[in-house]
Fold Nucleoside phosphorylase domain-containing protein.
Amino acid sequence: MRVLIIDDQYDHKVIAIAKKLKSLNCISVKHVLNAKDAYDELLSTKYDLLIVDIQIPESFGDDIDENGGFNFLELIYNDKEIDIPTTIVGITGNVDSYHSNVNKFNSKGWTLHLFDGATNFINEIIEGSLRRSRDEHKFDVAFITALRHTEFDSLLSNGMQWTELNIDDCNKYYSAIFFDKDGIARKAIATCCSSMGMAVAAATSMKVIQKFNPHLLIMTGIAAGVEGKVQLGDIIIADQVWDWGSGKTQDSESGIKLLNDPNIIEIDEKLSSEMKDISSKRLYVDRIKASFQGNTPQNSLSIHVGALASGASVLADSKTIDLIKSQKRTVIGVEMEAFGVVVASKLSGSNVTKSLIIKSVCDFANAHKNDNWQKYAAYTSTSVATEIIKNHINF
């Protein structure tokens, strides 16, 4: 384990901590005196543990900044060139400094320790750091889209600072930090499928779940809406999904007939209740529509929670929509991946990853189908999903 200590003095506090770290067989313990030297060190070396004093100068010869340690941590978290240490601990021997900073540290998911001369707390830090190192590929939220173009582009432009991960995999992965409704820092991972369809979506979802063990798996993107029930750009949050092509085909007097046998899967009841509350209160929708940079439909934007059907084909005929409506009259949308994502989530193991499908209407799967509203639909879907993870999920 590599440890970097930032403290403006090489005093009893630093000496005691360094001795304790070395007694625990840390590979390397480095001490720097100011924020600039620490920044240069983090640019050149990957550290597992960062211990920073609250009161440090910006550079050699500068006066002490009473909030220098916290300001430095905020700086490196917004710098894509820095490989952030797995564990970050603030430390101070000043009681007033501790009380004025502890809430700020906690809100970021960092630890602040009031040093009283004892070093036993280092054991807990090392143990926790090792545990987090083992869990560094665990994420709170995983995003998946079907299409790289439009859908995934919209996700990577959702205001979170996405960074590409160096993972040996045929998929490209991006990670970002966001803050949940309690102000706690959370980790998100995002990828897209190599092609459309339930099979690829299920395989990609299962791989993401196995690699990153997310609390929540979200698919965003575009879908066809059932005309008369939703409007262009409207967000559909699925509370039920099924494969509309499931069943048996047989000959009949009018030709080949599909005997439907759909397996309808429902999403988590608590999630569904929260989504319906968002919909009924019309949260976020007016602001999202107003913020889109481009043409928007004349209709107002709404969120609908309801039944979403998945199938193997891109649809552009109203007769197939009528067939799907005969399976479940309350269906409000049709697309090609949701059922695969939800099945993968349900089969993910004893610690089941919850799933949400959030897609927006880009057409009505009829003869007038076109791509005019795909960018807008991808934007509304992504925007609502981003608000949901920040303001409505209990992690």
